[in-house]
Amino acid sequence: MTVWLVAREQALLGHQVTLVVEIPPDQAAKMAAEEAGFQLVYVPADTWRYNPQILTSLFNSDLPHIVHMHSVFLPKQATLARQLVKNKIPYVITPHAMSPQLLQRGWLKKSLYSWLVEKPRFYRASAISAVTPQEEKAIRFFVPDYQGIVHCLPNPVDSYLLEDHRWKGHVEIKKLVYLGRFDVLHKGIDKLIEIAGFLPQEVELHLYGSNDVKTSKWMERLQNNIPSNVYFHEPVFGFEKVNVLSEASLYIQMSRWEVFGISIAEAMYLGVPCAIADTLNLAELFNQHNLGLVLPSDSQEAAKCLTELMNQPVQMQHWSQSAKSYARTHFHPRKVALGYLNLYQEVLHI
Asked: What are the tens digits of pLDDT across the range 150-209?
């Protein structure tokens, strides 16, 4: 989503933008890209590399000034990085997920891969972009001797989808909403359910998302013994997602770690008051700019904080306004696109 939104804004600003995709785009994607003014190029890939013949042909016909790679721990990107260095094309990396907890999950494989493959890719990058100040710290810890540019710029939200919608201010219905994967460990689904058990019965927790393969059995056990005020739903998208968010009393997320959290940013953009765990990277921004409620890890104490907030509509309105103002200033796609363009110019010495 980040890549598509930024590409659209950069194309609207008059730049030539090409997205390399490894799944053949359908007709709707082609039409959307054409309307936005950027190009989609299909380059098949396996785990270790993009199709070398097509990639070489692409470089020969239209050599890019700069390449921006998103994500982390993808072997094909490391192979691409070596090809870019060989062709003297600078590249930028935005990991989107660099955190100590990510490195610890499957730490043996990631540790070996990091030393052999990923750290060399990072060290050869002309610039690395983090989405939060805490991710920037994690990046500097991961590659402490990196001499290139390290830049901090948040992810964008889809302003085209959200712009004309607002939080409806339904404080009285006491409806907490979570949107995202049901990865029990990462997203703290067990903590959400535990907190709900300590809340007054009239406060409902509604979770919208899809099951996660890694923690599906854990999820089944949780769903067999949930409080009566907890409801699970299928994932929602587009305007249906906007309606779910705007009609909530509060957005809540208790991830054990989260580098950004796009649903939090979307809720903020709409002006939905947010309550997030102190383990999220965005908690630092919440505390610094007074953007919402930062919850402690103790579930009973977190439930107490939420119960008190449900009876403080003035405070909820204040956080609604401050979060909306911050999000519309910092998370708008045009703002992020311009930030990346400034970074590219710094790399290219323009």
From this structure: 999 999 999 999 999 999 999 999 999 999 999 999 999 999 999 999 999 999 999 999
Determine how β-strand 274-277 pairs with β-strand 149-152: unpaired
The Cα–Cα gap between 335 and 108 comes to 38
Tokens of 305: 């904080």
201 exposure class (CB count in 10 Å sphere: 0-12, 13-18, 19+): exposed
Q: Classify the C-alpha dihedral 232-234-237-242 as positive or negative.
A: negative
pLDDT per residue as tens digits for the range 286-332: 999 999 999 999 999 999 999 999 999 999 999 999 999 999 999 99
Angle (nearest 5°) at CA 77 between 73 and 81: 125
Q: Name the residue among 123, 151, 135, 137 with its Cα closest to residue 96.
A: 135
CA geometry: angle 51, 57, 61, nearest 5 deg: 145
Q: How many CB atoms are closer than 10 A to CB 313?
A: 14
Amino acid at 91: Y
Q: Which residues contact 98 (CB under 8 A, 6 or more apart)?
A: 72, 130, 135, 138, 139, 142, 259
- Counting Cα atoms < 13 Å in the Cβ hemisphere of 333 gives 20
Residue carrying structure tokens 């649903």:
263
Question: Taking the CB of residue 141, how many other CB atoms lie within 10 A of it?
Answer: 11
Residue in the block written with tokens 């949930």? 226
